Amino acid sequence: MKCILRILLLSCALYFTEATKSPRKIYTSTRVKDKCILDGSEESKNKVSVTVSGRICLPWNSLSRKNSSFRNCFHNYCRNPDNKIQPWCIVRKRNRYVQEYCDIPHREIKPTTTSPPTSDPSKQDTESTCGERRLKPLTKIIGGSRSTDESQPWIAAIFKGEGFVCGGTLIAPCWILTAAHCFPDGKKTRMMRYSVYLGKNAINETDNVKEQQFNVSKLVVHENYDYTAEDFNNDIALLRIEDSSGQCAVRTDSVRTACLPPFQQMLPTGFYCEIAGYGRHQKGGFEYSRYLKQAQVRLISQNACQNKYYSKDEVNKNMFCAAGRDWEEDACQGDSGGPLVCEVQNTMFLFGVISWGKECAKRSNPGVYTKVTNYNNWISLHTGLPKYTAGSRYPQKD
């Protein structure tokens, strides 16, 4: 009897043991079939899950909607899937998901043996991939709204030393288009004192994951811009940028090029476009905005611009006007050089460079912009990029 009882108990034990193991076996075989792509390397031994700011990393599979490759990555350990300068992870910051570098002791940081991402041409925008962006605005340029670098990924922040100077627009991986008046020393400008940042959300904060920093290797101010006349005619300039390794901008969600429209192309009166910048965001204010801002402005006819709001002496053929609805939105000091971009069939084209205006967001005083499409040939001459200046992405009439 005891023997029979022992056999029954042993059978029950084996049954329940196998029953509890079955799901685990299925789970294990699934994980073997679809391994987490972040594991399997020497770096996977790292168990750090805290960033340099003290935030706790989120599980990688929380990004699976944006990147299905992470769907089997259930841990939150710091990894380096894209060969940045050190491992990073995703954290939640101000109701947004952002990348942050991890708090890893220096001895654990190993230099990458792969080529820097900037050396890969496939990671740079071309004339056929310009004008694209992933996100719409989340939330002043005066009267405007809080923006993100993903919403205006072509905007550049130009600094002289530690001080912010002007905005600009990335039109090719190595070239920024901006305003001539941002460089009052003209040809005597000491370029080694200048730097350019792309992917910057705030001019007094640094995000090492999203931002790209560059030196200025060349400045080209339009030869017919007259610093003594102060009439802002030909208020346009080019900056050639490169990083410390001699490479140009890498295409990311935060850094993209804006397209150039064809020569002398313009949009109809009343068309709404976007301006963006880090300049003053309050009438009569003295401080620049901390954050990138953007606003919508409406194109004003050349006739009204030259005869109703200004004179032909003030606004010539190389300029155009735009103003916000009810005169509430406008560019201001500090926004100079930044973009006026217009969306045409889901592609963003750079039509204007923020140039000048009388006061800010004042009724009957629209902002004045350099008409970029008057300068396609000039841009092509100095950049050697005729394909970019041809405006090939602009819709062609049948």
From TrEMBL:
It is found in: Secreted, Extracellular space. It catalyses: Preferential cleavage: Arg-|-Xaa, Lys-|-Xaa. GO terms for cellular component: extracellular space. GO terms for molecular function: serine-type endopeptidase activity. Residues 35-107 form the Kringle domain. One of its GO terms (biological process) is plasminogen activation. It holds the Pfam family Trypsin. Its EC number is 3.4.21.4. Coiled coil: none annotated. Residues 111-121 have a biased composition (Low complexity). Residues 108-130 are annotated as: Disordered. It is an enzyme of class 3 (hydrolase). Residues 141-384 form the Peptidase S1 domain. The keyword Zinc does not apply. InterPro entries: Kringle, Kringle-like, Kringle_CS, Kringle_sf, Peptidase_S1_PA, Peptidase_S1_PA_chymotrypsin, Peptidase_S1A, Serine_Proteases_S1. Residues 1-19 form the signal peptide. It comes from the Eukaryota. Keywords: Disulfide bond, EGF-like domain, Hydrolase, Kringle, Plasminogen activation, Protease, Secreted, Serine protease, Signal, Zymogen. CDD domains: Tryp_SPc. This is trypsin.
